[in-house]
Amino acid sequence: MDVMPVAKFVHACYSNKKLVTDPFITEFAIMHIKSGSFIVYEADKKQIFTAGSIIFFKKNHLAKLIKVPEVDKNFESVSMILNDTVIKNYISSNHLIMEERYKGRNIFALKNCTPLQDYFDSLYKYGNGSNEGKLIEKSMVLLDLLLLHAPQLQSALLDLGMPGKIDLEAYMSKNFMFNTEIKNFAHLTGRSLASFKRDFNRLFFTSPHKWLQQKRLDMAFFMLKEKSLKPTQVYLEVGFEDLSHFSFAFKKTFGIPPSMIYSGE
């Protein structure tokens, strides 16, 4: 049986615009941007981070992430991804306790400081296949730095449990455009997959798959007609994986291809 590493180091370098395909953030992560910009779309906000930013990602959250290179320079970043095991070990070793639940933002830029900047500068010499023992050591150093310079994150890092049960209608109406698996929606609303499907059917009188597709198509129709956007600008925005699937589903539902709505025919 494979054992999941307790920490993961990712050095990314892209010459073309790159969309992170799965919007479900399953682990805590901290990213440093060396060059280029990083666009984050959450349900209720858009953020743009530029070179030099150090970004904190809370686990159990949905967001569209886009890495954008500069005109004459690649997008380049390093990230440390920390799973529950490394954080639990750190909590135990440092006798940390949760005094109150975290109520802050899920994704935000940390206030830059020399120790954090020096830490990430040192990571660029590592490869993506770095020794796990070294990664654990680097993870512990990072957690020390985070709690020293951003002590408000202690309650976030201690929040390792499954999300609590929340209002299903409000959550889905706010997050339907994120193209993630049904089981992830179940997890994020504090339900097993079976109870999620049962509650969903009682609330919406249809299956999650059918409801999600119709909501996405309705939003696409609005964006094409009212905002005069092209189909190529819309399909990813509303949660479809590829343009051909979007066009087929759109025509099947509305009787005309999305290009006719955009062109005003």
UniProtKB/TrEMBL annotation:
<protein>
    <submittedName>
        <fullName>AraC family transcriptional regulator</fullName>
    </submittedName>
</protein>
<dbReference type="Pfam" id="PF22200">
    <property type="entry name" value="ExsA_N"/>
</dbReference>
<dbReference type="InterPro" id="IPR018060">
    <property type="entry name" value="HTH_AraC"/>
</dbReference>
<dbReference type="GO" id="GO:0043565">
    <property type="term" value="F:sequence-specific DNA binding"/>
</dbReference>
<dbReference type="GO" id="GO:0003700">
    <property type="term" value="F:DNA-binding transcription factor activity"/>
</dbReference>
<keyword id="KW-0238">DNA-binding</keyword>
<keyword id="KW-0805">Transcription regulation</keyword>
<dbReference type="Pfam" id="PF12833">
    <property type="entry name" value="HTH_18"/>
</dbReference>
<keyword id="KW-0804">Transcription</keyword>
<dbReference type="InterPro" id="IPR009057">
    <property type="entry name" value="Homeodomain-like_sf"/>
</dbReference>
<dbReference type="InterPro" id="IPR054015">
    <property type="entry name" value="ExsA-like_N"/>
</dbReference>
<feature type="domain" description="HTH araC/xylS-type">
    <location>
        <begin position="166"/>
        <end position="264"/>
    </location>
</feature>
